[in-house]
Design a protein that fits this description.
Shape of chain C: globular
Strand content of chain C: 15-25%
CATH architecture of the largest domain in chain C: 2-Layer Sandwich
Low-confidence stretches of chain C: 1-17
Largest sheet of chain B: 2 strands, antiparallel
Order of helices and strands of chain B: HHEEHHEEH
Number of strands of chain C: 12
Shape of chain B: elongated
Distance between the termini of chain C: 60 Å
Chains: A mainly alpha, B mainly alpha, C alpha+beta
Largest interface: A-C, 52 and 56 residues
Number of helices of chain B: 5
Strand order of the largest sheet of chain B: 1-2
Largest sheet of chain C: 4 strands, mixed
Number of domains of chain C: 2
Order of helices and strands of chain C: HHHHEEHEEHEEHEEEHHEHEE
Radius of gyration of chain C: 21 Å
Strand order of the largest sheet of chain C: 10-2-12-11
Number of strands of chain B: 4
CATH class of the largest domain in chain C: Alpha Beta
Structural class of chain B: mainly alpha
Oligomer: heterotrimer
Chain lengths: 422, 179, 306
Amino acid sequence: MKFLKFLRLSVKVFFRGGRYFYFWIGFLTLLMIWGASGYIHQFNNGLIETNMRDSVSWGFYIGNFTFLVGVAAASVMLVIPAYLYEWKPIKEVVIFGEILAVSSVLMCLLFIAVDMGRPLRFWHMLPVLGTMNFPSSILTWDFFVLNSYLLLNFFVVTYLLYNAFLKKEYNKSIVMPLIFISIPLAVGIHTVTAFLYNGMPARHFWNSAILAPKFLTSAFCSGPAVMLILFQILRKITNFKIKDEVIWKIAELMAYAMFINLFLIGSEIFKEYYSDTEQLIYHHYLFSGIGKQKDLVVYSWSSLIFGIIAFCLFLIPKTRKNFFTLNIGAVLIYISVYIEKGIGLIIPAFTPDVLGQFYIYTPSWTEVRVAAGIFSAGFLLFTFMVKVAIAIIFEGFDIDTYEKLKSKDIFRGIKGYHKEPS
Amino acid sequence: MTKKSKFIYLTIIIFFTAAAIAGLKHKRKKILRKRSSKKSIEIPVKAPPFSEGIYPCSECHDDLEVNYKRRKLVDEHDNIVLKHDEKNRWCLDCHSAAKRNWLHLAGGKLVSFKESYKLCGQCHGPKLRDWKRGVHGKRTGYWNGKKKYLLCVHCHNPHDPKFKPLKPLPPPVRQENIK
Amino acid sequence: MTTNDKHNKTDKFKKFTRKNFLETAASAAGFMLTGCKFDSSLEELFRQKFRTLSEAEKKEIIDRLEKKYSKKYGKKFKVSRKEPIEGTLFGYALDLSRCIGCRRCVYACVKENNQSRKPQIHWIQVLQMEDEKGTDLFHSDVHYNPPKVPEEGHFYMPVACQQCRNPQCTTVCPVKATWQEPDGIVVVDYNWCIGCRNCMAACPYGARHFNWGEPHIPQDEINPNTHYLGNRPRMKGVVEKCTFCIQRVRIGKYPSCVEICPVGARKFGNLLDPESEIRYILKNKRVFVLKEELNTQPKFYYFFGI
């Protein structure tokens, strides 16, 4: 079977690597074990191991989930310019965007799973077997689109790589429609996730029509920021090739997205503060604190300031094309959106709670552990898929070399795999 | 179709689906609407709350001459401090001087202790009306059947009717301390 | 599959005497492999939603539950599944000018409805409000604890499930584990809830409570008169809420908070009966509902009886 060969090659390729690679894998595995043991603890004792309580009933898990939906969505939305404007250089990196999307969606689903009080009842959500509350519950929509998005992107990635492995031209009539579905689906996963929050009149902080557009634009900042940095790392340590222009082009697109994002944040802030209703209390808590409760102030302001600095760095061509300032900008915007879509989105919606009571939430150690475990699982999957993709696309591994590549080549890898001079 | 218009088309589809969900949400749930006009069955009343050994009043008062003078009671009933419009009223405005085991209304009509609410209702008309419908005061028993009433005086001391403060039961554990 | 088939199948399953042994073995193996303790039996794990079960299946499940609870708490348990009384729609009214904030209702509710004592769950939150701020929730306090109540300058507003006619919580539930019964009570199927807490985020009244840990109730405090959709003992990881004491009101009794209230501030009745207390209040008193602007249309009314 050719496909089996493809799988075996993938595994073999994965294990090629030097000391740093094995250190990285070991590090991720350790984190995963640490996270898993934290989760077992939570599974046995219940969510009491987290610091979520009735007043703040969602926390760190759901915040990470929301952020990662953004990353997943944005990494595919980069495909839009590639296909709409036929801009070839970006096209080559599309597959890496999709790999990032697959890993992020997997992390999203894991974050949902660990947030469930009765995880073994997950099948209640499935159609036919369980009872999906479709179409009224946005959560079922989210579950549905996230899973479709995962399957779709996973299929496209595998299909493209498998064809490259077979040295065949991929079938355009299969791939193109799928890519065209995946674009609205990428918009869809983030829009539906926004609607999940946005459709609740009980939580004024979320109940704003601007939430979905804000989700999309902030995703367009954070997703590519992750990719920019990953691309540069990959370019340094593997045979992955990407032109500087591509990176600059992505950075330019990000600058537009950041502008719209800042504009939307500004609109929201204006509306809340100028109309000054009793519901301003949530923004108040976020930006200036209430009484002694000033826990989020430092985060919200750093998020805002980092966002503005990053925007300036990306807007000015000189700093955009300087990799040092570009990377600073990417890290800043990443932190900015991680705060905005994580704790800055979830906690103020619950603090004070619907009856006006304050419960100050900070994630517990169990939550941090489990989240670290999930992130390392995602990174592990990403590493695996990226290694396979690089080997097949840039290093010319295919069905013919597979025949020659015997097990001793794997050991060659363990002894130390060096980047071939390009 | 150009690629651009395809994209726009897809966007439109997404927004229509969103609108459709919002519409479906508004589908009202049917609730059984059938009127039951069962009359509720009335009212076994708990005995009036007398202090021990105080009733019937005639036991002592039959042998005593009625003293109509407003005064501070010292020999008996000295525990009663009237705090119920005390400037304008006194014992015999409610307690009958002629028949000591009875109360009387302003017009002189006698009322038994079991029906003391009629006396209260002279001034507190709207309260009496609410009470009769079970809206003022407490009812226990069956919402669709037999109910138990309490008299006004079960909760309000007629000589000092303001409801007395209570010690509250403990507050909920702070969520920080739920471990 | 017809009901009969299903029933035969479960009968056969019952006869399989080694089932329990296998189950214990399976969960032990699961524990050794993963370190996870599995607290539900295979039957519970694969149980269908209560509403869709056949009569025979419901009866079987309830028999098993009664046995399980009786054994665990050392008392004879009754798990009712009484259906709504025709022609009822329950409504509730609370007299703010009477309530003194003594919290008798909170603990009567805990006892009647078998809420977990540790970790603590209270279905009723009594808010202490400031007179000059009115019903502004953002100036309320649930942790007040003076020697005597009511305290000068304050009034009290107990809040529990408002039993909305247009409930948000049931709309957002991804698995239809919570719904509004024909008599207007919003209930939860504890064996179908997945614990996602979407309903808690959607509830504007903080009425839904989560079993963050394994609920603990002392044996001598357990109330053995229960309803499947109401006060039967719950498990960790599921959401619970006020059901107007479904186990009481469906047999005509008043909810237990109504019975305990020392000032008679709590009123309950059938909204469809024009002679009921609740209808009298709606007609004659100044009533309001909490957060009217959200269109949840509560059947829980606050009024000023003065």
